[in-house]
UniProtKB/TrEMBL annotation:
Signal peptide from the UniProt entry: 1-21
Naturally occurring in which organism (per UniProt): Zygosaccharomyces bailii (strain CLIB 213 / ATCC 58445 / CBS 680 / BCRC 21525 / NBRC 1098 / NCYC 1416 / NRRL Y-2227)
Keywords associated with the record: Signal
Protein name per its UniProtKB record: ZYBA0S06-07184g1_1
GO cellular component, one term: cytoplasm
Length: 101
């Protein structure tokens, strides 16, 4: 295996660890590393992802190339709230229809 291949695999593994760190920080869900025989190594791997993700966030915060999101920057709309809102509206309408009969 060449050095280039090892670097590529290491970079990919680091990105995956960073994604897992972002999931933990945004949702509170943690990869269940204790279910595996190599839990000590997985714990260290997840710690590496946390450190890399934290470093990236620090870089972004102090970089002049990034800014806070503005309301008009809706790259991906949060559809969860809209779906819950529609469910409540439909539930109320359904109750009204059935209460009249």
């Amino acid at each position: 295996m060449s050095l280039r291949s090892l670097l590529h695999i290491g970079f990919d593994l680091t990105l995956i660890a960073m994604i897992l760190a972002a999931v933990r920080r945004n949702t509170g869900y943690v990869f269940a590393y204790e279910h595996y025989g190599i839990s000590t190594y997985l714990y260290k791997y997840l710690g590496w992802g946390e450190w890399c993700y934290g470093s990236l966030v620090k870089f972004v915060k102090f970089s002049g190339k990034f800014r806070k999101q503005l309301p008009q920057d809706e790259f991906i709309q949060d559809t969860t709230n809209r779906i819950e809102e529609l469910d409540r509206t439909q539930h109320k309408a359904h109750k009204k229809r059935h209460s009249k009969h």
